[in-house]
Design brief:
alpha/beta, 8 strands, TIM Barrel, globular
């Protein structure tokens, strides 16, 4: 009798189990003007456990940061209770870098610098991502076509992929909205580059701000490309913080929950009014409110 009762109770216990909360990170530029340690404290204070870093926040030549400086950054994040999740918006500093320019010398120098940023990412924490958005540094320029640019992205990624794999870094080909960049607008296009590179160190990610070019509903897009999605950025279509507009985050988060997504949800905003801490706090609150209203994963209902 006890055995039967135990068996009958097991499914009920599973059904009542609460899903693990999503891991929430915020991008470093949310707190402009703050020293790095204070930035970390602000991120933790406003509801985040992860930090995604814009390397230009670290100085004019972030890859030149010495070992002691890298150790200080690791310590600041650890002291604040944060996990380093990766780099994004890189190649803004130093000036003059471009991944797809027809100028072969500039292109070679840029990909070489990319390799140095791989080392920076690896030195700041284990298993980080590098979100390859960098719209101005990757778009087709000087007579090159978007197809030319996509081919050069593919070629460059193939060259740096072994180094990234060796350092435990995953590079993420990010689709960008058509009004922001003229190359790689959809998850299909990003996935095509990932497939061509054919390395576990090169995958893709989802950014809600950059989904304007998608033709299918986002839950469908996520399901189709889920095996390649390693990171998620959350923001409104106009770049404001989640909750400042009317973007439907619930279907996105529900799909991620149903599929067992275990990566970071990272808040990346472009409008910091009235101030960074307020924006960060409101964004975290909105995401947690949406999350609280989700259904349990399908396997637990």
């Amino acid at each position: 009798m006890m055995a039967r009762r135990t068996l009958l109770a097991a499914p009920l216990g599973v059904a009542m189990a609460k899903p693990k909360p999503f891991r929430l990170a915020v991008c470093s530029e949310t707190f402009p003007g703050l020293p790095f340690a204070k930035m970390c404290e602000a991120a933790r204070r406003t509801g985040y456990t992860g930090l995604e870093i814009d390397p230009s926040n670290l100085g004019g030549d972030p890859a030149a940061l010495p070992a002691a400086g890298r150790a200080a950054l690791r310590s600041a994040m650890k002291d604040a209770g944060l996990t380093f999740c990766g780099l994004h918006s890189f190649l803004k500093a130093p000036a003059g870098l471009h991944l797809t320019t027809p100028d072969a010398a500039v292109r070679a120098r840029t990909w070489e610098y990319f390799g140095s940023l791989i080392d920076l990412a690896a030195d700041l924490g284990p298993h980080p991502v590098m979100v390859l958005g960098s719209s101005k540094q990757r778009q087709a320029i000087d007579g090159a076509t978007p197809a030319d640019a996509a081919k050069r992205l593919q070629e460059g990624l193939r060259k740096v992929a072994p180094h990234a794999a060796g350092r435990g870094v995953t590079i993420l080909m990010e689709p960008l909205a058509p009004h922001l960049c003229n190359v790689v607008h959809t998850m299909d296009e990003a996935a095509a580059i990932v497939e061509a590179v054919n390395s576990p160190a090169v995958q893709t990610m989802l950014d809600t701000h950059n989904t304007a070019g998608e033709n299918a509903p986002l839950p469908e897009v996520i399901r189709q490309h889920f095996r390649r999605i390693r990171h998620v950025h959350l923001n409104e279509l106009d770049g404001r913080y989640p909750g400042a507009g009317n973007f439907a985050f619930a279907p996105v988060l529900q799909t991620l929950r149903d599929l067992g997504y275990a990566g970071w949800l990272s808040v990346e905003v472009f409008d910091f009014k009235p101030d960074g801490e307020t924006v960060a706090r409101l964004a975290a609150g909105h995401i947690r409110t949406v999350e609280a209203g989700l259904n349990s994963p399908k396997g637990e209902r």
